[in-house]
Amino acid sequence: MTFHDGTNGEDPYLQPAADGEDSDEDEDLAIGKNDNVLVIASTADDISVLEFQVLEGPPEDDEDDDDDDGRANLYTHHDLMLPTFPLAVEWFDYVPGSKSDLRSTSHATDKGAFIAVAGFTPDIELWDVDVVDAMVPTAVLGAPKTDAPQDKAKKRALKKANDAFHVDAVLALSWNTTHRNFLASGSADTTVKIWDLDTLSCVRSFVPHAKAKGGAAKVGLTKWAPTAPTCLLTGAHDRSLRFFDTRTPHDAVVVKLRADPEDAAWNTLPGRDTEVYVATEDGHVQLIDLRNAAAPKWTLSAHQGGATSSLSLTASGRTLASVGADKTLKVWNVAEGKPALSHSRQLQLGPLFACSWCPDQEGVIAVGGARGSVVLDLHANATIHANAGDRGEEDEDDDSDDE
To answer: Which stretches does the entry tag as region Disordered (predicted)?
Structure first.
C-alpha cells in the first residue's frame, strides 16, 4: 500500500482533459494535478488485485465550489487483476524498455507512471498505470521465456540461484529516485539484484547475508539511501541489516537486531541522513545511526503480541506512523530526538500490514490489514473511506485513543 503524486505532466489520464476532450469517459478518467493516487494490493478468495484509488486534492482554481462540503473524497479509479499473490509493490516514473520498442510506442519521454509488482513467483511485473484495461504487464523482469522443451539439467539450472534472475519468491522492491533506471529487489533465493529498467536485465547481483559456515538468509527488505544513491540497505531473516555501496558490496556496515526486520524508513530530517527507523517482528521500533551501529539510539516497544509490520514517515520527517499485528495504528513525534506517542487507534481490520502517509495532505494516512483498508484524516478525527468487506464503514470514533 502506497500513496504517490498523481501528476507528472506526461500522462493523459493524470491531468484534466484538454479543450474539446469533453467525453464522459475522459472526464471520469481524468486526475487533477492536486490529486494523489493510493495503490492497494490485495488478495481475496484466491483472486489478487491491484487497485488504484484517487484521493482528490483541493480545487485547482481559487473559486469557491458550492458543492464542496469540505470533506475529502476518495474513489476507485481502476484496478488490475494479478496472476499471483502480491508480496511487494513499488511505484516508479521511469518508462521501462528504452532500448526496446516499448518507449517509442507508448511514451514520448522517459517519464510515466508504473508499478512494479512482486510475489511468490520469481518474476517482477511492470505495469503501466495509465493503461486502464491492461491484461498483461508492460514488461517482466526475470528468466528468459522459451517454448522449447527443456531437459532435466536445464530445469535444475533454472532453479539454482544465479546472477541473471531470481529463482524464488521476490519479497522486496526499492526504486532508486536518483538513478531512475535502477530497481533493487530482494528474494527468498537469498540474492539482491539491481535491474536496469532500460535493458530490462539484471546488472548486479549480491548475496549480502551470506553465512560464515555456508548458506545465506532470505532477503525481505531493500531500501536505497536517498542521499547516497549508490548505497543500499538490506534486511534478512537472520536478524540483521546490511548497508553497503553497491560498487563495493563487501565493505558493508552490519547491524545486529533483536529480531528479523519487517520494514525500514530513512530519517529525512536535516543532518540525520545516516539514521534509519527499523521495525522488527517482535513488535519493536528502533532508530539506528549507521555511523555507530553497535547499539540503537532508542528502542520502542511499539506493538504488543506480534510484529511491527510497517513504518511510514510524513513528508516533513517529523512524524512516524507504525502498524502491527496488534491491530493498532500508532503515531509518534520523532522531531525532538526521543519519540513521543501522539496518537493511538485500534482499527477493526484485523492484524495490520501496511501504512502510508499522504505526501500532500497533512494528517491523512492509509492503513491496510487482513480485513481491508481505511483512509483516515487524523487532524479532523475522521474516516475518509473504509473498505472492510461486509463489515461496512468503520465508526470513526470506535476504539480510538488519542493521547
So the answer is: 1-30
Q: What's the CA gap between 345 and 376, in Å, rounded?
A: 11
- Rounded-to-integer distance, Cα 156 and Cα 299, Å: 45
Nearest Cα neighbor of 348 from 363, 329, 330 is 329
Q: What's the CA gap between 276 and 286, in Å, rounded?
A: 8
The alpha carbon torsion through 145, 147, 149, 150 (nearest 10 deg) reads 0
Distance, CA of 214 to CA of 335 (rounded, Å): 42
pLDDT in tens, 117-161: 999 999 999 999 988 888 899 999 999 886 666 666 666 666 788
User: 359: which 3 cell numbers?
Assistant: 505526501
Instruction: Find the helix or strand (DSSP H, E) in which 47 lies.
Output: strand 47-55
Residues 121, 84: contact at Cβ < 8 Å? yes
Domains of the chain listed by start with CATH number: 2-58+72-143+161-256 (2.130.10.10)
**Looking at beta carbons, which pairs linking 129-132 to residues 24 or more positions away fall under 8 Å?**
129/11, 129/37, 129/52, 129/91, 130/11, 130/12, 130/13, 130/14, 132/13, 132/29, 132/78
- Both ends of the chain: CA-CA distance in Å? 26
- H-state helical runs in 49-161: 102-106, 152-158
Nearest to 319 by CA among 366, 257, 384, 269: 269
- Identify the CA nearest to 258 among candidates 275, 242, 281: 281
Using CB atoms within 10 A of its CB, is residue 301 exposed (0-12), middle (13-18) or buried (19+)? exposed
The residue whose grid cell reads 479543450 is 19
| 41-81 pLDDT per residue, tens | 999 988 999 999 999 877 666 545 555 555 568 889 999 99
Pairing of strands 86-94, 74-82: unpaired
* 36-60 b/e (C-beta count within 10 Å ≥ 16 → b): bbbbbbbeeeeebebbbbbbbbeee
Q: From CA 239, how far away is CA 221, in angstroms rounded?
A: 12
- Alpha-carbon distance 32 to 35, whole Å? 5
Q: Which three cell numbers stand for residue 159?
A: 532453479
